[in-house]
Amino acid sequence: MFRDRKEAGRMLAEALSFLKAKKEDVVVLAIPRGGVPVAKEVADALGAPLGIIRTRKIGAPGNPKLAIGAVTQDGEAITDPDLVGMLGVPDDYVREEAARQVEEIRSGMRKEGGDSPYPSLAGKTVVVVDDGIATGSTIRAAIQSVKRRGAATVILAVPVGPPETISKLSSIADQVVCLSTPEPFYAIGESYNEFGQVEDDTVREILRRQE
User: Fold this and answer.
1) Number of domains making up the chain
2) Alpha helices (H) along the chain
3) What is the DSSP string of 149-181?
4) Is 146 exposed, middle or buried (0-12, 13-18, 19+ CB in 10 A)?
5) CB neighbours (10 Å) of residue 201?
6) In Å, what is the CA distance from 115 to each residue of 44, 97, 168?
7) CA 182/CA 179 separation, integer angstroms
8) Separation of alpha carbons 29 and 141, rounded Å
9) What is the pLDDT of residues 53-80, one digit of tens each?
């Protein structure tokens, strides 16, 4: 059990301390909004730059909570072909929903403080951080996007996630650091004493201090 996101971030930083020796080659990317306070602690401890990678899930027709894929801020959609095929989801729906989610991302970017670009990732060790994982669809999209931007190594770092999801993501990321894999897994917030919503102002302030 973590007291809050800051404590979880500090504990993750300890687990990632092996990266301190090559901090010049490390970039930390947070999944907003909940991942930002966690990633800040990691970036501060490693002496690494902090950026944001924004993703949104693509929900199934008539069931938006069921993720059939996800999209990143650069418009790249990654879907689950088995689920899409099983549900008979038309290609037009995927394209239209992906475009809608990209617009949601851009709206969030404006609230968070503008269209800040990714830091350069070519040849870097990139640590993708969130406050926890449930289904893993948005994290999967983030990892794929980071790889396509030329990262040499992609490390997924999260405080908590379900064992099966963590196992699947281990085949996509070069390394996964997860502090807790409860079984059965109910919700990310179950692993925190304090798990309030992270506000846009908090994200803006953390990013401003990193400049």
Assistant:
1) 2
2) 5-15, 35-46, 81-87, 91-112, 137-148, 163-169, 200-210
3) TT-SEEEEEEEE--HHHHHHHTTTSSEEEEEE-
4) buried
5) 11
6) 23, 21, 32
7) 10
8) 13
9) 999 999 999 999 888 999 988 888 889 8
Based on the domain organization, do 98 and 122 belong to the same domain?
no
pLDDT digits (tens, 9 = 90+) for 147-163: 999 999 999 999 999 99
| CATH classification of the domain holding 103 | 3.30.1310.20
- Residue 90 has which token pair? 């038309």
Residue with tokens 């993720």: 67
Statement to judge: residues 61 and 83 lie in one domain: yes
Domain CATH for 34? 3.40.50.2020
DSSP-assigned beta bridge partners for residue 155: 127, 175
The span from the CA of 178 to the CA of 107, in Å, is 30
